[in-house]
Amino acid sequence: MGLSTSFLVGSASSLFLWGLEKISDYRSEHLGLLFTLPILGACFQYLAKLPNSSFQLGTNDLIDRVNQQRSDIPWGLGPFILLGTWLSQISGASVGREGTAVQMGGVASYQISNWLSLEESDKVDWLRAGMSAGFASVFGTPWAGCLFGLEISKVGQISFRAILPCLFSAFGANWVSLHVWGTNHTIYPTVFLPEISLAFWAKLASIGLFLGVLGWVYSRLESIISKTFAQLPMHNILKGILAGLILLFIFQFPIFHESIGLGASYLLRPFESGDTANFAWSKTLATSLSLGLGFKGGEATPLFLIGAHASSALHEIITLPIPLLAALGFTCLYTGLAKTPLTAIAMGIELFGSDAWFCFFLCTLIVMYISGKKGIFKKQAWADWVPKPLYE
Predict the structure, then answer these.
(1) Which residue from 69, 131, 58 is spatially nearest to 101, judged by alpha carbons?
(2) What is the largest CA-CA distance in the chain?
(3) 3-state DSSP assignment of residue 291
């Protein structure tokens, strides 16, 4: 079971990343593809409204299955989310990749467990393991992937019985992606801490508060857009056309040009320059609109970009090294909204070195509480012993 999950998910992530690279190169040379956004929006709205459509499902449904709030995960979710994300990217929608990899991994491992007629508890463990494998192999972070699968379903609680499946699958899928298919991941600079003093702790808390407010703005903006759009008294196909036209309109403004598509080519920029505030806000709006209007993809890479660019831009106000500020924003905005503080520690260490491990943890905790009870995964439960934020 572990070998088949590792190979299948690692291979799927490699295929997905290879497709994203080709799509990004092609779209950058053919900006006219932006005009397909209304057509794609109409197709997505049509498919989402079909009876028993897998197209309307996502990571929240995998979390529901782990928490035993739903009885099954259809196999169609995997290919639908892969093709949907590729199409969203080729049209220029500002969406990410982690949701796609996590969903493909979860579906693959869950279907294998169904074919093997495993017990219900084992199916849930391997669903977690598939999600771990997808996260690990798409970012090249096996420890973070393992912990992501263990803590994603309930804030403040990990599944101890799923540790070995998640560990094996995360490392196995990452190995397959790297050594069988030759996938390359972005190499980030190692960050180092300045002298630790009372002023340093105050600055660290300030960064956490800033990212928490930014996370609250992002999640509320996406939620408002999604709810408002769903309530429009229009036919679904017209709704999809309108969604595409809205994105097409904002992408005509120069400030939004860099927010088209995934934006992976800008991941290293905030570690070198602090002049990045405009990109952070344009990417926030572009991603909120893209996902809120129904285009397909994940949220991690856009949130990495938003967090890193926004925090890096504060270097003149909060006098910390720019690479440290960027690394905190990169790691803590996403993991804070995902409510996964242990994943934050692992991801920070794997990408930026071990010096600032406690900074990633503390800032993520602050973001978790400032951004409210509901983050990017609305179906997450909270463990009884964990104090909950006072607002949604």
Answers:
(1) 131
(2) 60
(3) helix
- One DSSP character per residue, 190-209 reads P-------HHHHHHHHHHHH
| Residues belonging to the chain | 392
H helix runs in 314-356, sequence order = 322-337, 341-352
- The DSSP line for 163-175 is HHHHHHHHHHHHH
* CATH, residue 32: 1.10.3080.10
Mean pLDDT of 224-244: 94
- Per the structure, the complete domain to which residue 293 belongs is given by 198-382
In which element (H, E) is residue 382 found?
strand 381-382
Tell which residue, 333, 326, 311, 207, has the closest CA to residue 269.
326
Per the structure, the count of domains in the chain is 2
For residue 308, being part of any structural domain is answered with: yes
Q: Is the pTM of this model over 0.90?
A: yes
Region 2-23: what's the mean pLDDT? 94
Cα separation, 191 vs 169, whole angstroms: 29
CB 266 within 8 A of CB 279: yes
Instruction: Report the SS3 class of residue 348.
Output: helix
Per-residue tokens: 106? 């979860």
